[in-house]
Amino acid sequence: MSDNSSYVHFIEIWSIVMIYGTIALLIIGLVLAIVHNIKISSIKDFKQKYEYINKNEINRYKSIYILLGIAVAFFSNTYDNETVMLSYVWFFVRFFIAMCVGTLVGYVSILIVKYYYPGKMQKKLDKWRYMPRINPKTGNKMKLLSEEEEDVHLDEGMQAEENVFSVDYDVWIDEQTNDVKIEKYEGYMKALVCGSCGFQTLKIKNEEIIEPATEDNEGELLKHYECAYCKSVRTTAHIISRLANNDNEEYIRNKVMAGKVNTIAGVKVQIISADGNIETFDFQKVDQAENFLREYK
Ligand SMILES: [Zn+2]
Q1: Of 125, 146, 163, which closes a domain?
Q2: Is 268 buried (19+), middle (13-18) or exposed (0-12) by CB count in 10 A?
Q3: How many Å lie between the centroid of ligand 1 and the Cα of residue 200?
Q4: Is residue 82 part of a domain?
Q5: Is 194 a domain residue?
Q6: Are both 166 and 117 inside the same structural domain?
Q7: How many angstroms separate the alpha carbon of residue 7 from the centre of ligand 1?
Q8: pLDDT digits (tens, 9 = 90+) for 133-156
Q9: Angle at the Cα of 104 (from 103 to 108), degrees rounded to 5?
Q10: Within a domain: residue 215?
């Protein structure tokens, strides 16, 4: 009987530890959320606010939800002590279920942050990106120039970056003094920084298979890059992994030939007319979309 009383005592202590643990985890999560928001409001510059949210918010939310998942696991370990005190087997059953419930809560929350939250965060980012800037010298509200108006204020390299969609510049102007503020944002497409001119305009021009991969040997692929601004070129060599079997050979070669296209599942083109009418077109391949736009009048 004394065995059982020490087990009962252990369960009592265990429950207290789990309850305090739950409270501590929830407090830490709350503090992380508060500190994050204080940090955002302490940043005065809108562009820096944008950068901070863009860089940190999703990771911060993920940590908070991991803490929440662990808190749920802790709290589940206090469920139905009366039954657990009957036999230590129930202790392990409850422990295992608590781990599962905690993992599930944490995992589902992180999935929500990963897939649902970016859309919501985009609205937050847009708010700071398009919030009228104030000219620090005059205190005047500045105006955001349209894509056509802004080119005068961008040098050729910057325009080249915008033309390959790797960088998006926002140009704000104080209409009374003509003071200009230029802000740099990440564009829709990836391009590398050119070693010659320093602009983010180095793009893949074509890929060349030097040595096709076989079942026995790795192949070699050259990627040819060209800078859209200064036209300097660069070539890098890559290994093509061995083929799994012959059936796959053509498929893999096509994938390699298609280059970066193989990571694209679809292309959506939205055309917005002057009266605000929006038409959406879906394509499976990039070149279909390109051809479509060439034909579109
Ligand atoms: Zn260049």
Answers
A1: 125
A2: exposed
A3: 8
A4: yes
A5: no
A6: no
A7: 73
A8: 999 999 999 999 998 899 999 999
A9: 120
A10: yes
State the distance from the centre of ligand 1 to the C-alpha of 158, rounded, in angstroms: 11
Centre of ligand 1 from the C-alpha of residue 173, in Å:
28
Ligand 1 geometric centre to CA of 127 (Å): 33
Say what the pTM is.
Answer: 0.70
Q: How far is the CA of 167 from the centre of ligand 1 (A)?
A: 14
In a domain, 74, yes or no: yes
How confident is the model over 41-74, as pLDDT tens digits? 999 999 999 999 999 999 999 999 999 999 999 9
Residue 45 sits in the same domain as residue 110: yes
Domain co-membership, 18 together with 112? yes
What distance in angstroms lies between residue 207's CA and the mean position of ligand 1's atoms? 19
Q: How many angstroms is it from 198 CA to the middle of ligand 1? A: 6
Same domain, yes or no: 239 and 255: yes
In total, how many domains does the chain have?
4
CA 254 to ligand 1 centroid distance, Å: 30
Domain span at 139: 132-186
Same domain? For 256 and 273 the reply is no
